[in-house]
């Protein structure tokens, strides 16, 4: 078994908010309306995971829905079991993805004390954040999130900001980046909002590939001005990680989806957060060992579908950074994984324009830190009159090779 991490949903999809674009809330409406992980299942899960090897590095991610609905006593039990069953000399990390609206002083103090890393969902300034992120009673949430963040700061809890890029925000890269920057948030993660309707069309709050590409270009331009060494943007860090060390640190860049396990509130285990589906149920922590779950044919079928990509990917110069993209963005995956990612054009626009700059930054970093080794990636060179790789059908000089990108509004 290769090392794996756990992403646990102790309250399943239950949440005190009703963000319009949430992809997980259907799991609540279709099942138990008050799902909570029992202490028995929690103990079995922690004990069995900590009895696997993992090179003594164990990673727990707590997510939902909203995991803080479980309350402080639940997380006290988490730490109690982790301390009880941890092999000697092991390292345990806990991350929580939260909307931060229910962070009390007690929770913040506890998370600070036990070094939990929080991912706080914040879609930018008030007007942008509140557009889709509302309470069950349709009230705005921005002020509640900022109150939660203040409490985290008060108890020195480390946190990242997770920003979903949707139809309302996709043209506001500069505004969002500067807002986060002005608030001295230095760890950013931008997540494209892509949800399909049953007929394969994009839902209204989703973004297109082209919009994603232009968003990334604008974001890069803001970041590169002055913040390369000051602000961490997860995607940019991951590109650098690959260019400098030849390593991947996000699943969507890799060539398979055998990456981690999702554990639902009832102990049910699935291969990925985006694919908690009945036909992909691998087993249950109450009945199956991690070895059985890892060796499940379904797990490996799902994992291998990542590299069952569209034929176009075989010719793509960015294959090593994309590997056909996340299966979530290929309509019908995993069974129809050859469908081209709906973000494909965005990745091509971004990489065609900005990879050469990343290469310069990576080479400089290597020199400053005495890192030797072969550059893992050949940055393609384009002739001005060749057709542009981004898929626009235009000549390179009139598209991504133009000083002003032709697709810009
Ligand atoms: S489907 Fe996407 S999120 Fe899930 S493991 Fe694969 S790359 Fe990662
Ligand atoms: S950018 Fe597009 S063509 Fe290239 S690997 Fe990714 S999905 Fe495939």
């Amino acid at each position: 078994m290769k090392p794996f991490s756990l992403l646990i949903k102790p309250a399943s999809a239950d949440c005190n908010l009703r963000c319009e674009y949430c992809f997980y809330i259907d799991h609540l409406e279709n099942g138990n309306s008050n799902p909570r992980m029992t202490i028995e299942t929690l103990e079995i899960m922690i004990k069995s995971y900590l009895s696997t090897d993992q090179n003594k590095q164990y990673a727990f991610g707590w997510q939902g829905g909203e995991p803080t609905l479980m309350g402080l006593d639940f997380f006290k039990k988490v730490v109690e079991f982790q301390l009880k069953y941890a092999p000697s000399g092991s390292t345990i990390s806990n991350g929580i993805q939260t909307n931060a609206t229910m962070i009390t002083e007690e929770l913040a103090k506890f998370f600070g004390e036990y070094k939990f890393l929080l991912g706080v969902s914040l879609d930018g300034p008030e007007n942008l954040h509140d557009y889709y992120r509302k309470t069950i009673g349709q009230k705005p949430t921005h002020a509640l999130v900022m109150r939660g963040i203040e409490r985290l700061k008060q108890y020195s809890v480390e946190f990242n900001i997770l920003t979903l890029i949707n139809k309302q925000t996709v043209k506001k890269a500069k505004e969002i980046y500067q807002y986060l920057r002005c608030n001295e948030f230095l760890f950013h993660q931008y997540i494209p909002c892509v949800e399909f309707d049953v007929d394969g069309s994009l839902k209204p709050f989703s973004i297109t590939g082209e919009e994603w590409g232009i968003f990334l270009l604008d974001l890069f331009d803001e970041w590169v001005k002055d913040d390369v060494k000051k602000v961490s943007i997860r995607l940019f860090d991951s590109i650098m990680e690959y260019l400098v060390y030849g390593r991947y640190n996000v699943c969507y860049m890799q060539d398979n989806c055998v990456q981690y396990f999702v554990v639902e509130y009832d102990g049910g285990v699935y291969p990925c957060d985006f694919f908690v589906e009945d036909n992909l149920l691998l087993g249950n922590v109450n009945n199956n060992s991690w070895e059985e779950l890892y060796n499940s044919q379904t797990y490996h079928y799902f994992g291998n579908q990542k590299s069952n990509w569209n034929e176009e990917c075989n010719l793509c110069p960015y294959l090593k950074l994309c590997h056909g993209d996340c299966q979530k963005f290929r309509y019908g995956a995993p069974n129809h994984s050859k469908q081209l990612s709906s973000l494909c054009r965005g990745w091509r626009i971004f990489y065609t324009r900005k990879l050469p700059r990343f290469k310069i930054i990576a080479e400089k970093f290597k020199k400053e830190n005495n890192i030797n080794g072969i550059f893992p990636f050949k940055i393609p060179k384009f002739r001005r009159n060749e057709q542009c790789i981004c898929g626009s059908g235009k000549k390179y000089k009139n598209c991504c090779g133009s000083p002003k990108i032709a697709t810009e509004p």
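DSSP finds 14 helices and ten strands in the chain. The chain has a mean pLDDT of 95.
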